[in-house]
Request: fold
Amino acid sequence: MGVGVGIDLGTTNTVVAVARDGQPVTLADEGGRRLIPSFVSFHPSGRVLVGEAAKERRVVDPENTISSIKRLIGRTYASDEVQRALRAMPFELVEGDKQAVRVVARGEIYTLPEISAFVLRRAKAVAEAALGEVVDKAVITVPANFNDPQRAATKLAGKLAGLEVLRILNEPTAAALAYGQAAGTPERVAVYDLGGGTFDVTLLDLSGSVFEVLATGGDTSLGGDDVDHVIVTEMTSFFLQRFRFDPRVDPVARASLRARAERLKHALSEREESSVEMNDIVRGDGGAFLPATFSMDRKRLEELTKPLIDRTIETCRFSIETIGLTCADIDRVLLVGGATRMPMVARQVEEYFKRPTSTRVNPDEVVAMGAALQAAALTKGHSRRAAQPPTVKISRADREAAVAAVMGADAAAPFGAVAAVVHEVVAEAVDASPPAAPPKAPPRPRPVAATGAVAHAPPEELEEVEPDFEDLLPELIPDEPLSQEAAAPRPGTGLAPPGSPPVPASFDAELHVPERPQAVSPPAPAVAPALSSPDPGVAVQPPPARSVPLLVDVTPISLGVEVAGGYCDFLIRANTPVPCDRKRVFRTASDGQTAVVVRVVQGESEKFSENTYLGDLELTDLPPAPRGEVEIAVTFEIDADGILNVRATDQASGRETLARINLLGAQSDASDVAAMLARQRRHDVA
Amino acid sequence: MATLYALQTRLALVDEQSYYEILRVPSGAPSSEIKAAFHEFALDCHPDQYVDAPSFEGQIAGEIFKRGVEAYRVLSKPAARSRYDQGLLHGHLRLVDGTNSVPPPPRMLTLEEVAIRPKAKQLALKADRMISAGRLDDARVALVTAIQEDYDNDDLKERLNALMEAIALEPMSLEVDYGARR
Reply:
């Protein structure tokens, strides 16, 4: 069983972190960098470059270098954001099935989750190299204000990257978790998260063992990139004025302007004034470049960005008022996201909340750290209330030791085998069930596996859990010949140095599980395979220093269906804790009607058409009957990932009926997923 | 975290319990107490607390948790809570605000949406507007012209048939019929 990590999949940068002993740390690549630029570049060699290497190619190969995918993922082709990107982005976007957006690079058409999967694979590889262990599970963060299709697409990206997605976690909530972990006292916190492409504000009660999200709001198309854009516009007018030349007509010049705008923005967070050389943009009559220097002072930048920041403050005001609070009720304001480094942001936030902001936590890394903590809490055997791996047999002495441990200090509940007993003992001792109650008899088979304590079991005796895609891709397609540079030695192929850790350096290697140093399986226990492998990492680990609090998060957007007159009937309101559900009964509207179509939206407007249309729920194969007589009860559930699930039952028969939800842009058909997984395999990520 | 037995008991009771009973608070409890009770409840019944348990324990917990969320949402908002308290006097354990039977209007594509060629779309839009204005015969004329442009559009032809049928049978109720088909 591999390690679970936290991944902050950002618009501009991605960060990966792991929590060990309750302490989260971000992980660096071989060059010591902790920020992986969320750029994917399709190299002529067929290799897919991700991160710094890809970002460098945005200037030389803008058409095949994809960035800011997070702004587009889960949106329809016709949406404003995508239409704007069509004009602003140097790479090609086309419309796919169900109004989805596709990216064209080197003649191939990719879905957006596939592009994000490349970034996630890089994050996975960085983590595996840093940890020397297989990483196969992750908590992936998204802006709190992401809607259902955006979350579902991100989850799919994780799956395509070969990760079991433990949770789609809201970024501000993750930040609060990392922060609260450090703070430790009960308080009401506002998290102001201004990232590269999104803005979120989340209000939470941090009280000891439970972190309750009270409200969340945001703008999924507002971030630091917009500040870059403002600077690019300013640079453009400089060139127009000075040379009568519009640098935006040339994709290379445009990309180069963007890169320099970003650098200028960073400089202006440190200094009052800065300038940047632009000697390679405009050519004179003879074809030689004309020298040019663009300079800007902080005052001008702040003038230009003030409307953007004002929008964020408005969102804060709205969120606080929604739950009937005022600024005075907020104990602390936490700044998250790289864009909060701009001095003006902190100033305006402090002005609004009338209190100093907290910058104790690194704004770039705090989200990934929180995600890592949640990943640890959601990993079997690592969780805050560690229980039993069911394959382990424990001696009586071990049991007694465990009982003693529990009675002594149950806060320091140990992991693994011992914890299995702890779980039961605590349950039996503390549970105030009536005396007549039947004894708790959980169906936990305890086959004989390793003898003695798990801690002594050598890792060689432990069973490997195969990666997710083994199931999905039973027949592996042979590798296509790749370029010279892609033909680097892979672990397990005989070229790798002996004794090297079983960490796949590439995605391909991971699929060749049998070639890896093969573990010797113990006599197969008669339990479900998923439960049958104790984690070697667990056994040798000391208990966590602190337990991770329980996160109770909310759904950011109201969910509704269309009713007569073009109105929206809300089923689940924004800021409802998740998981939650709501049942609705639908009746046929005409005689003999055998299908009912329910249109589903997310949004806050009473008018149906002003909300984001998610898709149709189709209830089919209804028995023909006079109108109104067929009643179908539909349960709309929003799960802990904030993703919608639908279940329908026929009221008369009590049987489940066919409920198909056709979501716009969704790519969830098994065949689609298999094809996308196969394509991931064909591309090496570097 | 609760034992499997405790979870099963809670789940069995949840349909017979008031929101107060689900969250285990007295019915007069102030909002601060309701919040604290919800936190206690979440520690017992949030599915994330059952990561290490067999998956069905997490599922049972999840079902209970969702009912607790419903209770908490109502009890933590004064207006909803007082409505709930009123209903509770009459034995209503759950606050149902129109939970039942909202028939969705089966929506038909507009003629404009059905039309394919730009010229046909334009004419179909005209027909749509005529229908909205109740001028069904004018709509028919516009639609026939649209079909001349979209000569191979069977869907559009079918819509014309429907329109003709509606005019012949019950001209006044066309709008209702227009919406209710399919």
